[in-house]
Design goal:
With 120 residues, the chain is mainly alpha-helical. Helix 1 packs antiparallel against helix 2 and helix 2 runs antiparallel to helix 3. 14% of the residues are buried.
Length: 120
């Protein structure tokens, strides 16, 4: 048990913070599970609106220090990849089947070198 007055105050403050952090973590978990769970049985399991809410909650929790920034980033990436798997391909048309050619990515170009400033 804490002996000094300041140590007792730190215990009280840490209890308040623990309760606040616990409710924030619980809310984040709820939003993430809602984003993953289908609202209707025949609907897709991930909706962009629910994912947006979950990502916002993860960002806020990381900003407050309730979650580690990398933890929130990892969870957001998993949500977005799950959403991308369900969503139809954005704007790229699929290559025709049976053409025999496979699509190869062009090598990435290096950015142009910036001219260096001459020191006077």
């Amino acid at each position: 048990m804490a002996n000094t007055q300041s140590a007792k105050k730190r215990v009280r403050a840490s209890i308040r913070k623990r309760d606040r952090n616990r409710s924030t973590r619980s809310a984040v978990k709820t939003l993430v599970s809602r984003a993953r769970r289908p609202a209707l049985p025949d609907a897709a399991s991930l909706t962009s609106e629910e994912v947006r809410r979950a990502i916002s909650a993860l960002d806020k929790a990381a900003e407050k220090g309730v979650l580690h920034a990398n933890n929130a980033s990892r969870r957001k990436a998993r949500l977005m990849s799950a959403l991308a798997k369900l969503a139809p391909s954005g704007g790229k048309p699929a290559p025709p089947k049976g053409s025999g050619k496979t699509a190869t990515a062009s090598p990435a170009k290096k950015p142009a070198a910036r001219p260096t400033k001459a020191k006077a």
